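Task: sequence design from structure.
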Protein backbone atom coordinates (compact mmCIF):
# COMPACT_ATOMS: atom_id res chain seq x y z
CA UNK A 1 0.00 0.00 0.00
CA UNK A 2 1.30 3.46 -0.88
CA UNK A 3 0.64 6.65 1.09
CA UNK A 4 0.33 9.77 -1.06
CA UNK A 5 -0.78 13.37 -0.56
CA UNK A 6 -3.20 15.00 -2.97
CA UNK A 7 -1.83 18.34 -4.22
CA UNK A 8 -4.16 20.33 -1.95
CA UNK A 9 -3.28 18.27 1.13
CA UNK A 10 0.44 18.64 0.37
CA UNK A 11 -0.04 22.41 0.14
CA UNK A 12 -1.88 22.45 3.49
CA UNK A 13 0.82 20.38 5.18
CA UNK A 14 3.67 22.47 3.79
CA UNK A 15 1.88 25.67 4.87
CA UNK A 16 1.59 24.29 8.42
CA UNK A 17 5.26 23.28 8.53
CA UNK A 18 6.30 26.69 7.14
CA UNK A 19 4.16 28.51 9.70
CA UNK A 20 5.68 26.55 12.59
CA UNK A 21 9.19 26.86 11.17
CA UNK A 22 9.03 30.67 11.38
CA UNK A 23 8.75 30.49 15.17
CA UNK A 24 10.60 27.27 15.89
CA UNK A 25 12.58 25.34 13.28
CA UNK A 26 13.13 22.41 15.69
CA UNK A 27 9.37 22.14 16.31
CA UNK A 28 8.68 22.11 12.57
CA UNK A 29 11.26 19.38 12.01
CA UNK A 30 9.87 17.37 14.92
CA UNK A 31 6.33 17.63 13.53
CA UNK A 32 7.53 16.53 10.08
CA UNK A 33 9.30 13.49 11.52
CA UNK A 34 6.40 12.55 13.79
CA UNK A 35 3.97 12.91 10.89
CA UNK A 36 6.10 10.70 8.66
CA UNK A 37 6.21 8.01 11.33
CA UNK A 38 2.47 8.20 12.05
CA UNK A 39 1.41 8.14 8.40
CA UNK A 40 3.82 5.36 7.47
CA UNK A 41 1.80 2.89 9.56
CA UNK A 42 -0.99 3.31 6.99
CA UNK A 43 1.11 1.30 4.52
CA UNK A 44 0.51 -1.86 6.54
CA UNK A 45 -2.65 -0.86 8.39
CA UNK A 46 -4.66 1.48 6.12
CA UNK A 47 -7.81 1.19 8.24
CA UNK A 48 -6.01 2.02 11.48
CA UNK A 49 -7.12 5.65 11.40
CA UNK A 50 -10.41 6.47 13.03
CA UNK A 51 -13.60 7.20 11.13
CA UNK A 52 -14.38 10.92 11.13
CA UNK A 53 -16.62 11.53 14.14
CA UNK A 54 -18.29 14.46 12.35
CA UNK A 55 -19.14 12.34 9.28
CA UNK A 56 -19.34 8.67 10.29
CA UNK A 57 -21.21 7.61 7.13
CA UNK A 58 -18.46 8.81 4.77
CA UNK A 59 -15.49 6.64 3.75
CA UNK A 60 -12.91 9.07 5.12
CA UNK A 61 -10.65 8.33 8.08
CA UNK A 62 -8.13 10.38 9.99
CA UNK A 63 -4.80 10.16 11.71
CA UNK A 64 -4.13 12.73 14.40
CA UNK A 65 -0.62 14.10 14.80
CA UNK A 66 -1.18 16.84 17.38
CA UNK A 67 -2.14 19.52 16.70
CA UNK A 68 -3.08 18.41 13.14
CA UNK A 69 -5.64 16.04 11.67
CA UNK A 70 -4.76 14.18 8.48
CA UNK A 71 -7.88 13.10 6.59
CA UNK A 72 -7.54 10.23 4.15
CA UNK A 73 -9.35 7.80 1.90
CA UNK A 74 -8.27 4.42 0.60
CA UNK A 75 -8.40 4.02 -3.20
CA UNK A 76 -7.25 0.66 -4.57
CA UNK A 77 -3.60 0.25 -3.45
CA UNK A 78 -3.11 3.84 -2.26
CA UNK A 79 -3.96 5.76 0.88
CA UNK A 80 -4.65 9.34 -0.26
CA UNK A 81 -4.14 12.07 2.32
CA UNK A 82 -6.84 14.51 1.17
CA UNK A 83 -6.69 17.27 3.79
CA UNK A 84 -4.61 18.54 6.71
CA UNK A 85 -6.40 20.61 9.32
CA UNK A 86 -5.42 22.26 12.56
CA UNK A 87 -7.23 20.36 15.34
CA UNK A 88 -9.32 23.35 16.40
CA UNK A 89 -10.86 23.65 12.93
CA UNK A 90 -14.17 21.94 12.30
CA UNK A 91 -14.16 20.28 8.89
CA UNK A 92 -16.78 20.90 6.25
CA UNK A 93 -18.25 17.81 4.67
CA UNK A 94 -15.60 16.47 2.27
CA UNK A 95 -16.17 16.43 -1.46
CA UNK A 96 -17.53 13.32 -3.06
CA UNK A 97 -14.77 10.71 -2.62
CA UNK A 98 -15.25 9.59 -6.22
CA UNK A 99 -13.95 12.98 -7.36
CA UNK A 100 -10.64 12.80 -5.53
CA UNK A 101 -7.89 12.94 -8.12
CA UNK A 102 -4.43 11.47 -7.63
CA UNK A 103 -1.47 13.83 -7.87
CA UNK A 104 -0.65 14.77 -11.45
CA UNK A 105 -4.14 14.06 -12.77
CA UNK A 106 -5.91 17.22 -11.63
CA UNK A 107 -7.99 18.99 -14.22
CA UNK A 108 -6.41 22.20 -15.29
CA UNK A 109 -8.43 25.38 -14.82
CA UNK A 110 -9.11 27.35 -17.95
CA UNK A 111 -7.32 30.67 -17.94
CA UNK A 112 -9.63 33.64 -18.01
CA UNK A 113 -9.28 36.19 -20.82
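Answer:
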Amino acid sequence: MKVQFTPSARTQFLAAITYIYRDSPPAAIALRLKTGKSLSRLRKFPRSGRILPEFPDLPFREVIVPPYRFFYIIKEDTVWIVAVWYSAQLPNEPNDPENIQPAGTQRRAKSGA
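The mean pLDDT is 84.
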